[in-house]
Give the backbone structure.
Amino acid sequence: MSYHGIVIAGFGGQGVMLMGQIIAAAAVIDGKNSTWLPSYGPEMRGGTANCTVVVDEKPVASPVIDTPTEVVAMNYPSMVKFGKKLKSGGFLFVNASVVDQKMDRGDVKIIEIPVNDIADKIGSGKVANMVMLGAFVELTKVASFEAVEEALRYKLSGSKSALLPLNLEAIKKGAEYARGR
Amino acid sequence: MSYHGIVIAGFGGQGVMLMGQIIAAAAVIDGKNSTWLPSYGPEMRGGTANCTVVVDEKPVASPVIDTPTEVVAMNYPSMVKFGKKLKSGGFLFVNASVVDQKMDRGDVKIIEIPVNDIADKIGSGKVANMVMLGAFVELTKVASFEAVEEALRYKLSGSKSALLPLNLEAIKKGAEYARGR
Amino acid sequence: METKIAFGGPKSLSGKEFTYCPGCHHGIVHRLIAEIIDELGIQGKTIMVAPVGCSVFAYEFFDVDGTVAPHGRALAVATGMKRALPDRVVFTYQGDGDLAAIGTAETVHAANRGEKLTTIFINNAVYGMTGGQMAPTTLLGQKTTTTPYGRRAKNDGYPVHISEMLSTMVGVAYLERVTVSTPQDIRNAKKAIRKAFLAQIKNIGFGLVEVLSTCPTNWGMSPVEAQRWLLENMTKEFPLKVFVDKVGD
Amino acid sequence: METKIAFGGPKSLSGKEFTYCPGCHHGIVHRLIAEIIDELGIQGKTIMVAPVGCSVFAYEFFDVDGTVAPHGRALAVATGMKRALPDRVVFTYQGDGDLAAIGTAETVHAANRGEKLTTIFINNAVYGMTGGQMAPTTLLGQKTTTTPYGRRAKNDGYPVHISEMLSTMVGVAYLERVTVSTPQDIRNAKKAIRKAFLAQIKNIGFGLVEVLSTCPTNWGMSPVEAQRWLLENMTKEFPLKVFVDKVGD
Amino acid sequence: MKTEKLMMKGNEAIAEAAIRAGCRLYFGYPITPQSEIAEYMSRRLPEVDGTFLQTESEVATVNMVYGAASTGKRVMTSTSSPGFSLMQEGVSYIAGAELPCVFVNVVRGGPGLGDIQPAQSDYFQATKGGGHGDYKLLVLAPSTIQEAVELTQLAFDLADKYRNPALILADGMIGQMMEPVELPPMRDLSTLPDHSDWALTGANEREPHKVTSFNIDPYGLEEMNKRYQEKYTRAVREEQRWEEYKTDNAEYLLVGYGTVGRILKSVVDKLAEEGIATGVFRPISLWPFPYTRLRELAEAVKFVFTVEMSSGQMVEDVRLGVEGRVPVHFYGRMGGVVPTPDEICSAFKKLL
Amino acid sequence: MKTEKLMMKGNEAIAEAAIRAGCRLYFGYPITPQSEIAEYMSRRLPEVDGTFLQTESEVATVNMVYGAASTGKRVMTSTSSPGFSLMQEGVSYIAGAELPCVFVNVVRGGPGLGDIQPAQSDYFQATKGGGHGDYKLLVLAPSTIQEAVELTQLAFDLADKYRNPALILADGMIGQMMEPVELPPMRDLSTLPDHSDWALTGANEREPHKVTSFNIDPYGLEEMNKRYQEKYTRAVREEQRWEEYKTDNAEYLLVGYGTVGRILKSVVDKLAEEGIATGVFRPISLWPFPYTRLRELAEAVKFVFTVEMSSGQMVEDVRLGVEGRVPVHFYGRMGGVVPTPDEICSAFKKLL
Amino acid sequence: MAKVQGYIEIDSERCKGCGLCINACPVKAIEFSSEFNSKGYHPAKYKGEGCIACGFCYLSCPDVCITVFHGARRKTPVGV
Amino acid sequence: MAKVQGYIEIDSERCKGCGLCINACPVKAIEFSSEFNSKGYHPAKYKGEGCIACGFCYLSCPDVCITVFHGARRKTPVGV
Ligand SMILES: Cc1ncc(C[n+]2csc(CCOP(=O)(O)OP(=O)(O)O)c2C)c(N)n1
Ligand SMILES: Cc1ncc(C[n+]2csc(CCOP(=O)(O)OP(=O)(O)O)c2C)c(N)n1
Ligand code: SF4
Ligand code: SF4
Ligand code: SF4
Ligand code: SF4
Ligand code: SF4
Ligand code: SF4
Ligand SMILES: [Mg+2]
Ligand SMILES: [Mg+2]
């Protein structure tokens, strides 16, 4: 599939914005076009946050989308809100570590990944978003893992570069989990 | 003549604004319509001041006029500036106490009144404008003298009412001078 | 010994949950104001003017008539209200960007006219709502999103001292700088707020309380750390002090 | 004994006739500024910012580059210039309406930032240009076209003391209140203006001279009476004083 | 009740009309050519237990108006061009918060500091929205002092009817001119509309009222905007006002508002003397613009000739009304120059 | 020279583009959704010996811009709707004093405080004149981040060419979105236009320069206005910019600018799938509005369908362009709601 | 003076886990709960004993979550 | 110290007749002219003697009309 309209949503602090930026950047590194559009506003402090990523071979016309082809729900309210907009046949990625209910849609592929648990295992709950990213890239093929690594390297340059190995490890673990489902 | 388009001009301080207001108010008291339009702006301090009075039987359409039917010039620059716009056959009233040059127009009636001299004679140079007013009303019949008196009485009410007799006297002297020309 | 409530929430709050970040001092100050409104028995005649800033929703948090003014103009809006309804109690609640930057002229002139108004001024040394930019009250050297190298006097000027500035004015009836970083500070702050309301109610003049407050989020500290930072740094630049008191006891 | 000019007009004036009313102090202050520009040898690098007020034409009266700012914003305009050209000398010339009413925020913040600017502030207790309305500095009891019953503190507030207010600020390098009502006053005023320019030239900070001035026209007095009134009344409300001097001699 | 005609300056007549309409609160900052409104108010309001306050700036002014209007009382301010520009943020807030109040802009030559002479170059600002967001002012343009008095009163009533700010768009000529005027009687304050359902007066024995233009949720804000738009649609239906002069058998239609509108009557008379049949369409409500009637009239003439004291602003609304049916020509003077009847005549005749 | 594509936020891309265009002076006051421009400038300008100053307000900002621009240097500020309203007096002064500079308004939902979501409800303010007087801004509306970069650079060049302020009219979406962008090289400051004939730099060995919008004489002010109008006429001739998408055989013309303009491309593609031939006309220069080309295109279609994130503002210019030749329909969302391609499709199809 | 006895109640759904009450309590009678509330915070929780009803926690709480009682603990909670 | 001798020249066309110089002169060496200038004012005029070149008139003049000279009066006027 050459077109991806992705919504990534969760609580503020779960790293959904970064996840989206890496996907968008990686797609560009792979030679595709992309846009990343955040929900914004400091007034939303403590509320939910989400971003929309569109990846396309052609220049992206609309950065807003009606029916995402993929949704990543890092918490329950996000699953409810965006899961129901998901295109029939699309992917719904759910953070199974914190969401225990099921989405009632038979026409989409639901991928449950216990990302917090996996992240905890490799040593830091903070990289749960990277675990999800690994799984997402693995199954959607939205970008190559090389491009994802390059995008991440760019984001974590300078003082943050020490965090790179842990993040890459998390991505790898996420991808492995997704492959092994 | 039922329509009057009058320009009254002079140095600031010569009382041209008040002269115009009295004419406009008197015309209204007589049951006509009128507008009074000042040149305004404090930046013009020390420069010349002028006002335009339109008197008409019908409601006044335009308070701005191209060609006045009467011009009152209280000083030389005003005579030059407005005298040449005067309608053919119109009246040009000139303050002969301060203007010693002549306007070179044969097609208008030039009325020279030494208003400062006349005013000085009755005791105050300050009422020179009222002398001119008397002459003006006398010759143009723009309003009745009763209406002029009423308008003046309204303007000089309250603390200024003591000035009324002197002003009325000045008007009378102006009218007399004009009649006697 | 009988069971009774020693401390409970004031009824002049609407009960809506505050939208502030965890540990943000805005909430403490809201509660103190509501307690004073309760204690003075003025809830039914009080009108609040909220600012644009993190406390933009404050007009929803108090159970009194209220509005939100354009950024910085709360004291002009309040002046309009008070002139229309001189027997009501009108107060503004404003941040340092709102009151000490864009609203400087309105602040100075309301104070100088001696408007019978009460102002609670939240000085948290930063623009909270817009994401942590420099405020007029940001300390020298302090890093913010628009002073990434720390505030430098040469380029960015000095911290503005609103209370010192207003203390020169005849129209001011009560003026104090407080903080709410310890229980004792909170008690003092409450006394100050009471007096700032009394300055209005007794028709003496303008009352203002400057509250040195934390913004844990934009300072990048935990709420407890932020209080400590405030007590160690902000109170040096902005000493706690009663500047004007024409209210008496 | 040789004949030589002891006192003559400065060359930094353009020679255009001033548009001020007879006896208006604006003209005296203009001349003093031009003399200082001459004496400091800075004519070629000085930029003037005129206000909106009777001195709106001032940018034409000085033989230096100049502009006229929106009413009250001269110090913001000057800040923009000075930041663009830090080695030029930029000064503003502002009335009390301009500087102390609509321009309050710009005044306070330019001073507080310590902008390297010089401001000559003409306090004539009235809005001259627009026809004599109340100014922030109008005295209590003074009649103006908008205080027909005399200024009443209760409705109109108190006279604003700009110099007192700005004297609390670290960014201010020179600040003095003078008048030009006697030859001695004029000499003092000139010294003050020189220092306010030096504060800028030496990069120390913001320099401001408040000049108590007459407006014979709107005060309804002869120029000589107006000077007397000023000395008897305005200097009581606004004492002549050096508030800040970081320039030295 | 006083019905005799008084000679009054436009500025003072507007002020007195406001007081007689029940306005007891005036906030303002001096600016030529309308400072007489403030000066009149400072004398007169204390006599009727009203409040006059000279503010520190137009920014403060508009926000004091916001505050006073939020209490439900009648309040007014007046200014001239640069001052009204400074008020735009506040005007947008007032419209968003649906507060009734009256603005007067006595327009002068622009842009920038410009001069202080009569101009019409703030038409766009007045009618299209000088501030941000989708709001409208109810804009009324008087062409005589008598009309200035009547429209001032109407402005207060419309502001209340629509809970929306109204604007008197005059010019330096209307402000400075004197004309005979008949003043309406003093309105009994107890007959003013009741705003107790929303006004901020202290929540005594009722639920608190909240007045705001704020809604952090875009769908909520869209609902608020829909409410505004409904009001505007209603106003477009009910509030189009204009005057016609000799339009009956006119072959050409002259369009102008305010001061120009009355000058155009002289032009029509002059042209009639030369046997040219023209008529004047003078919009009185600039917003809502009287498109409907203009469209009808345009169908019957050879062309439309719009005159403004600007580079051409209202002419866009004329074009929107005429929609290409007949040509629309334009003549304008700028910078505070008032066109005279003669020059308009010759400009017109060049088009024949 | 760096030509690789970077993922950049619109706000930051605009800031970097300004710096690369030779802008070394930025004055600004924070406001969502564009504070990143100021934040970026505060980090970046000191690196290139430039000056960033956070001001005390938008009123101060616009006047600092006036001051800096009067020295002939490239200067910029950015803000969002309420902030731009506060700048209107200053904008009018800058236009009147003929000073080149660049404004950015990242529009949010209004009126009043409104919200902080993307909107297009400041079109009138931008294009018709939010401030007083007869002036125009050169208004450019980007629909991608790449275009935001290019138009920012163009804005500086046009501002210099016309000695007139230019405005980038974006919206919260453009400001907050990230997209790949190729940045132009850093402009050599010595290649910037020479303004030494009028700039205020100190009258050393030359006659003093005076910069002003002031002229107390109305005839003098009218002459100044004529000079402005000549420039505007030239800009109308030379600066109309737009993009077309599939207009060649379109039966219906969709018109939208900025964010809506790009969304309309999706709409056209969707409709094409259903066999409906539509095309997009996307104005890039909002002033001067590309009337000429719109008029041509309108003649070839059945109707024109305008979409805006407002209650309908640009649609007036569309109507002025189309002049009644074909019907002009409108669909709008307000208050910060961004329309989706699907809803636009259905709104369109209702008209068939 | 005899030591006052008291207890507190915390509205744990309203609590944002800022810890200011914990920091303020002179007798360390409050701690973080290990549970999450629906906002995702670890709310503060009364340890169940030791409170001297000084009110410091009430004073310090920015979210008006705490009610302080004089006297012995009751089973029925008292509303805020 | 010997009394300085001086004289002044007044640009009478520029003068607005405000009288501030007259008021300031310590030796009363200036008076109003009875003539009008073209602006309509009675300009100030040097009485012709007595000036001590103190400069007070120059200092006080708001319209920069006065030039003060040290020494004896010359016939040829000196420009301002
Ligand atoms: C005219 C205008 N300018 C700017 C803004 C954006 N803005 C909103 S809040 C704010 C500053 C908030 O800081 P402060 O007043 O200190 O309050 P805090 O959030 O820190 O409590 C700014 C600049 C605005 N809404 N309106
Ligand atoms: C925005 C704006 N508001 C008001 C005015 C009108 N105005 C011009 S000068 C002035 C005040 C002048 O008083 P001041 O600053 O004291 O100067 P003075 O004339 O007394 O020297 C005012 C209000 C204006 N030009 N622009
Ligand atoms: S951003 Fe700062 S001031 Fe605003 S709510 Fe959060 S902590 Fe409080
Ligand atoms: S009005 Fe007053 S301040 Fe203005 S020029 Fe005349 S005397 Fe001077
Ligand atoms: S009331 Fe005092 S002792 Fe009791 S829990 Fe609160 S802080 Fe601790
Ligand atoms: S102070 Fe209040 S919000 Fe903070 S942890 Fe304690 S109870 Fe919770
Ligand atoms: S210089 Fe002195 S003495 Fe001579 S005329 Fe002037 S004031 Fe008089
Ligand atoms: S001070 Fe100057 S203007 Fe005044 S009278 Fe003397 S010479 Fe003339
Ligand atoms: Mg703050
Ligand atoms: Mg003044």
